[in-house]
Design brief:
Strand content: 15-25%
Bound molecules: iron/sulfur cluster
Radius of gyration: 20 Å
Distance between the termini: 68 Å
Largest sheet: 8 strands, mixed
CATH topology: pyruvate-formate lyase- activating enzyme
Strand order of the largest sheet: 4-5-9-10-11-13-14-18
Structural class: alpha/beta
Shape: globular
């Protein structure tokens, strides 16, 4: 006979976003894993290491739409990665910390579609080890601020109700005023975040596109309007905010589209409040570009010719990129964004 708990688990599994959940044997009984599992209501499959299955053979990116698996694992090897030049504001070291692979959203330009062999999500739960590495890096760079960016391989907030790690990283910022953490997101999932007091060195940055463009290419994400509403709520609560207009995709109306976005931001008093605003024009590695062509053949992204650029990336030609970024920069300045808050992403060698 089915117990109420078993019935609950069956029901939860039916409505779950996960097809299957895999857990590494060594962490199966850890409270963190048990907590995540209890929230999903699913019974996991146990394996030795996640990469026995994850990424072993090619799983097409779009299979994430109807058979997304979750892996709970420990991150081995490199826990921090030095960010490329011009990733962030200049003159200070920038690192990504790696606590997850892949994302529940489906942006047509997402570079993850050509980066990994699988769209299945991996959540690494050894946050203490990641934080120890971050602490070591801060101690080695005692004369300067050090930036740590989450969200290079995933969205930083989308699953935080499940993972519950935000408090640990927040505590790290509290203890290390010279460390800055950026949580980069398109999510409006702020439940965990709102439990934490705002800190100057704990920055929530939102990737934004004009509403009309986001509707076409940011699939399954919260709308631009919803993201702006969340930013406005966070601002009222005192959180530090930043924004990324990246990727900017060419359309004949791109200037008026970004003007409209900036007007919407101004309506919520957001432009003057931004700690920084990065601007970047759409770009791909060769592999990712091939995937985008295959997965989204009718995308607006293919409406304008691209070339192979100085760093082997596929992008618009240089004059066009600079014209687009400078056009949006001028609009942002006119809308009240401070000039020293704006930086152009990935263009320093062009
Ligand atoms: S939110 Fe970011 S990580 Fe997620 S699909 Fe979009 S671009 Fe990729």
């Amino acid at each position: 006979m089915n117990s109420p708990l078993r019935l609950f688990r069956i029901f939860a599994a039916v409505i779950s976003m996960w097809n299957k959940i895999y857990v590494e044997e060594a962490i199966l009984n850890s409270p963190r894993v048990q907590n995540i599992l209890s929230k999903t209501g699913m019974v996991p499959l146990v394996l030795k290491t996640y990469d026995e299955i994850w990424g072993k053979s090619k799983k097409p990116y779009l299979h994430k739409r109807d058979s997304l698996n979750l892996f709970l694992a420990e991150k081995k090897g490199q826990l921090l990665k030095l960010a490329p030049d011009a990733y962030g504001t200049a003159g200070e070291p920038h690192y990504y910390f790696i606590h997850a692979y892949n994302c529940i959203y489906e942006c047509q330009y997402c570079y993850l579609q050509g980066y990994f062999n699988s769209p299945d999500i991996v959540l690494f739960i050894n946050h203490e080890e990641i934080l120890a590495e971050m602490q070591k890096t801060v101690d080695e760079n005692s004369g300067t601020r050090v930036w740590f960016h989450a969200g290079e391989f995933s969205d930083s907030l989308a699953l935080t109700h499940l993972t519950g790690e935000l408090a640990l990283y927040h505590d790290f910022c509290k203890k290390n005023p010279k460390a800055v953490i950026e949580l980069r997101t398109k999510s409006v999932n702020t439940k965990e975040l709102l439990e934490l007091e705002p800190l100057d060195n704990f920055i929530i940055s939102f990737s934004l596109s004009p509403q009309k463009v986001a509707k076409e290419i940011d699939l399954k994400t919260p709308s631009t309007k919803a993201r702006l509403k969340t930013m406005s709520e966070l601002k009222k609560r005192g959180y530090k905010l930043a924004a990324h207009f990246d990727p900017i995709v060419y359309q004949d109306t791109f200037k008026s589209d970004y003007q409209e976005l900036l007007n919407q931001m101004n309506d919520s008093d957001l432009t003057k409040e931004l700690d920084y605003l990065s601007l970047g024009v759409v770009r791909f590695t060769k592999d990712v570009y091939r995937e985008v062509e295959r997965n989204y053949p009718d995308s607006v992204i293919h409406g304008t010719p691209m070339i192979k650029s100085f760093d082997n990336k596929v992008r618009y030609n240089h004059p066009m990129r600079m014209w687009m970024m400078n056009s949006v920069k001028e609009l942002a300045l006119a809308a009240g964004v401070k000039s020293d808050a704006i930086y152009l992403c990935m263009e320093e060698h062009a």
